[in-house]
Amino acid sequence: MSKRLWDKGQSVNAQVHQFTVGNDPEIDRGIVYWDALASAAHAIMLSETGMLTTEEKVGLLDELKIISDAGLKDEFDIPEELEDSHSAIEAKLTEVLGEAGKKIHTGRSRNDQVLVAMRLYLRSACAELLQQLSEIAMAFRMKGEEIGHVQFAGQTHFQPAMPTSIKVWLGAFFEHSLHLMKSGLSCYELLNQNPLGAASGFGVPIELRRGRTTELLNFGATQRNPIFVQNSRGREELRLLEFICEIGGMLEKFSWDGIVYSASEFQYICIPEDFTTGSSIMPQKRNPDVLELMRARVGKLRGARAELEAIIAKLPSHYHRDLQYTKEPVFRAVQNVSEMLAVASKVVAGITANSDKAANSLTPEVYATYDTFKRAKEGVPFRTAYKETAEAIASDAIDVSSLQSEFDSIAQETDNEYAKAAHEHAELTGRVVLLQRELAAIPTKLFG
Ligand code: ARG
Known about the structure:
mainly alpha
């Protein structure tokens, strides 16, 4: 006898079964924990509406606690014939508890079951990325304070442009991280909505206290229209992937800069030796493979986003089995970006500066724009000053020593910006800590 929930006795072509189930039993190991939490909230709610006895609820919660622990440790097996996490959990509950297990699906469909499990996962992944962004922001800030005084020739088009410093350069990534935290917090707010109760996408004709499961799972709101709830499957996943790709955008820029600035032609910075790799043939080589792979992984993140977008694009309203494939790219991207942030933070912390090389880059023409502004401050119209500077460069008459101090006003501004950013960083991190606390409180709320 087949154990599939919807089985009514017909035979299923084995190859078709294999095709439709695909790697879902493996992929769904990643949502067992969340599925168990949401099932616990559902059971509590059902007992409060009278659909489960207190005894049945207690039995379900005890078993769901065991399943959630196993899920967390990746120890809950999903047999192929049971298709997915949802069926496997129900089968387990029924095996252990009998009738109570058969009641857990009251008022629920696998459609909203997977929606809520994924929503819990997405929300938690978002919170963890926010935490990691807070950490990398701190790494950029600390390193900027430590080696930031070193000045070098900033470039546009890879041509020498104007003086800048490591503090300004790393400060850019400090501020970028904060910007991403704000983006992540607004992503979190939209993810923080409870889809449970939409059932197959049309609601159910029994009493469901949707607000109660929202409260038990610490969601910020309940999604309302059941068709909209179903239509949000994949869309909220895409929202997180957009955020992840934004993070990728920063890491990509940082990787590129790190590769260029540590290259022997520039060498303003050094990447710690144990973060570089050697060559099998050229004995002198130390290569920035970590940063190159970081840059390449951003391509993988964009690939995951493209995969997800292509799967959900052009789908009409309601559930379609296509949606089963929305999980894998999300898990893959989250795993990748999380590793990337962790490694990038370590690279940042290990950077050292090469003051001599940096100073060598500050040739007289790099001070040309300062020279123009100095003249303008003395009353020469800007366009005239610009021409005077051009002539001074041509005749080698730029006096660098008198222009060094021009950088000071910019440096002062950088210090002020760091102070403001540090304040903002503390405020944003405080918000993330509160989110984490709210999430951490859920298992106790459900299981006691
Ligand atoms: N594994 C399925 C998915 O991820 C679960 C939902 C199945 N629902 C259905 N109506 N066949 O989409």
